[in-house]
Specification:
With 716 residues, the chain is an alpha+beta fold. It contains 16 helices and 30 strands.
């Protein structure tokens, strides 16, 4: 519509990306240019009214004052905001915050006492409130998003202190901006997570809890959100075929608006044509656990919702329907759900959330040798009646004691090949009283095998009357091994070796006996070759027994441990799998693949996160040897600090404030000592200190310990 103006001034800017109408008059329209100029056009006269060249880079937004028709402001990519008076040819005032982020959005205050206040959003996600009467520093400022942000002040008078912000981080947040202290950050009172980056956000007129948004990439739809129920849109408009660049509500109407898109269309939308995703949402949720447990959640207003949908359907078809006695409003308040839980009989011995939390807080996974860790964890399971888990821990300790795992975890442990003298007090009990022999000392490893698995379950008398059986494989046809018996001895071997009963030997077929005749003849020849003098010397010698060589050879328990881990994994008990892996250590890579270990660790960490067991999760990450898991401790560790001197918000990890160059000094308000670890503080008065000191203080007093008089609330 302005092409004909080109004949009057060809130096006027041909690129007019944004147009902003004047609210108090229909005769003026402001436009921005890519070279930083702000141009005002007189529509009635068809001429250029004003041309301001204050910005050094492209101007992005122009706003007219809502009361004073001669005042307007502009923002540009040079991070500056200028105020203009239409009666003066040059800008009258500039607002600079010291930031270098381009201005993205601006808006003047709507309600009384807010008309001289305007809010600015930049590409860094910062929100700043300025007063036209004070240009040295902003009234309020805080970081709302990561990336470019859009803003919208609430038009409802009752909620006039609410501001909606949206950004490229796919979030829409609602803030109580009047309660945000100067230079401090605050928590959003509502937060809506969208599916794509948001370019514009607007409040819906006459609806103080609903906002409209459009996306800048990937999503062409326009959504209406109810901030009280942020997980699903209230309404959706799917008419554009390309990105919606902007939208505007029709004046005085809350059920109609106009939108413009990059598809070249300007569309007039009406709420009667809106798509309501909530009407198609399933109000019945069902889930099944790997162990067979079924949980069903039902909305308490399911029948009321179905009746409302049927009522609206009959009304749309033109049928005569009576007035409804009770209206269905899913956004008015919280809707209770009814939970139905179906537990099969086979789940009696499964791990419940109560046991999961107890084990996570009481298991000992490091700091001692393997046997002690397994014994401690077995006692933890016994304390709450989980006998099978207790036996499993004892079995793990026993199996690992028969392999190299125990030696890796206890390097100072006495090895099994060391020579140990036989004590006179040690005795081996046998059911044959005439054949008492010195005890067999196994260095304590096999002293009470069954007692480790089932303590107190086997009587001493039963353990003392073991019946020995010598099968075919135990028959020694080559005489006594020299390593077992030596002629130089300190202990005497008491008892008659030939007094073994015939019942100790298994009956064999006649053919097997004949097969041994040759070996028997060899033994006879060896015995006959001993002279009489050597016989007398042997009779006077003392015989020594190397009992450590009499113990059974070690066997490989790793396949049994792997089978045990796989069984717990199939049952969904990843807590047991991860706990056993951490107790055994990195050597478990020999039996369990790294990819499977990583899957167990990730599942266990997710469960710990759901139950808010942060300390246990941190210990698991610290103890894990998998790089992909141990690297999790370096994620999400950045927090923004506020300088107590200049109230500037830190944007880097430096220990010094970028504005006043002072070092961040966090001193406990109670003990007056620097806080080197976790810091706790009040977001309103900004006083804090050691969390333990604050906890003790707020047990007896609600006021801030600094004496500022603020009623702090300690989050227990």
């Amino acid at each position: 519509m302005f092409l004909w103006i080109e004949k009057f001034s060809r130096e006027i800017y041909y690129s007019l990306p944004f147009h902003f109408p004047r609210l108090l008059s229909d005769s003026l329209i402001a436009s921005t240019s890519t070279n930083g100029a702000v141009v005002l056009w007189n529509v009635e006269k068809g001429v250029l009214d004003h041309n301001y060249k204050a910005h050094t880079r492209s101007a992005t937004k122009v706003c007219f004052h809502r009361v004073d028709k001669n005042i307007l402001i502009s923002g540009a990519k040079d991070a500056n905001v200028f105020q203009y008076d239409l009666r003066i040819l040059e800008p009258v005032r500039s607002f600079a915050s010291g930031s270098f982020d381009p201005i993205r959005d601006m808006e003047f205050g709507i309600h009384q006492n807010h008309t001289d206040i305007f809010v600015v959003a930049d590409d860094g996600g910062s929100i700043r409130f300025w007063d036209l009467r004070r240009c040295d520093k902003p009234l309020r400022q805080f970081v709302a998003h990561h990336g470019p942000a859009s803003i919208a002040l609430n038009p409802d008078f009752e909620e006039r202190n609410l501001i909606a912000t949206a950004g490229r981080d796919k979030f829409i947040r609602i803030w109580q901006w009047s309660e945000i202290p100067e230079g401090n950050t605050n928590t959003a009172i509502y937060s809506v997570e969208t599916t794509a980056s948001v370019s514009r956000v607007y409040w819906r007129p006459q609806y103080k809890y609903q906002v409209a948004s459009c996306s800048v990439v990937n999503d062409f739809n326009i959504y209406i959100w109810d901030i009280r129920r942020p997980f699903i849109p209230f309404a959706c408009f799917e008419n554009h075929k390309d990105i919606c660049s902007d939208m505007s509500w029709k004046f005085g109407r809350s059920d109609a608006f106009i939108s413009a898109g990059k598809d070249g269309l300007i569309i007039y939308h009406h709420f009667e044509n809106a798509h309501h995703p909530l009407n198609h949402a399933n109000d019945v949720a069902l889930d099944m656990s790997p162990s067979g447990e079924i949980v069903i959640a039902l909305s308490s207003q399911l029948k009321l919702k179905n009746d409302a949908l049927a009522y609206n359907d009959r009304k749309m078809r033109g049928e005569i329907v009576g007035p409804k006695r009770r209206q269905y409003d899913p956004f008015q308040s919280w809707i209770d759900s009814r939970l139905i839980r179906c537990i099969p009989d086979s789940l009696e011995n499964t791990l419940s959330p109560k046991y999961f939390i107890y084990f996570a807080n009481n298991y000992k996974l490091y700091g001692d040798d393997l046997s002690s860790l397994c014994d401690h964890n077995s006692r933890v399971a016994e304390n709450i009646g989980r006998i099978r888990i207790a036996y499993t821990w004892r079995m793990v300790g026993l199996l690992c004691s028969l392999s190299s795992f125990i030696e890796r975890h206890t390097p100072n442990r006495v090895t099994s090949t060391s020579r140990m003298p036989i004590s006179e007090n040690d005795q081996m009990q046998s059911r044959f009283p005439s054949n008492r022999s010195p005890p067999v000392d196994g260095n304590g490893e096999l002293e009470d095998v069954f007692g480790d698995i089932m303590p107190g379950k086997i009587p001493t008398s039963l353990a003392a009357t073991a019946d020995f059986y010598f099968g075919d494989d135990e028959l020694n046809t080559s005489g006594l091994t020299p390593d077992c018996f030596t002629m130089e001895s300190k202990e005497k071997f008491e008892g008659d070796l030939m007094s073994l009963k015939l019942e100790a030997f298994a009956p064999r077929p006649r053919d097997d006996v004949r097969s041994l005749e040759d070996s028997d003849s060899v033994i006879t020849e060896e015995c006959s070759s001993i002279s009489d003098e050597q016989t007398e010397e042997l009779s006077e010698c003392e015989l020594t027994v190397r009992v450590d060589l009499l113990r059974p050879p070690k066997w490989d328990p790793l396949p049994s441990i792997l089978s045990m881990l796989m069984q717990h994994s199939e049952n969904g008990d990843v807590q047991m799998c991860v706990s056993i892996l951490l107790v055994l250590g990195e050597e478990t890579s020999e039996i369990v693949d790294h990819s499977l270990q990583k899957l167990w660790f990730l599942d266990y960490l997710e469960m710990l996160d759901r139950y808010e067991l942060w300390t246990t999760a941190a210990n698991v990450i610290r103890l894990c040897w998998i790089p992909g898991i141990s690297a999790l401790s370096n994620e999400s560790t950045f927090v923004r600090l506020v300088c107590l001197s200049c109230r500037a918000v830190s944007v880097t990890s430096s220990q010094f404030c970028k504005k006043c160059l002072r070092k961040f000094n966090f001193t406990c308000i109670i003990c007056q000592l620097p806080v080197r670890d976790i810091w706790g503080g009040c977001q309103i008065c900004r006083h804090g200190g050691h969390p333990s000191h604050l906890s003790e203080w707020f047990k007896h007093c609600n006021q801030c310990p600094s004496g500022c008089g603020h009623q702090c609330t300690y989050a227990r």
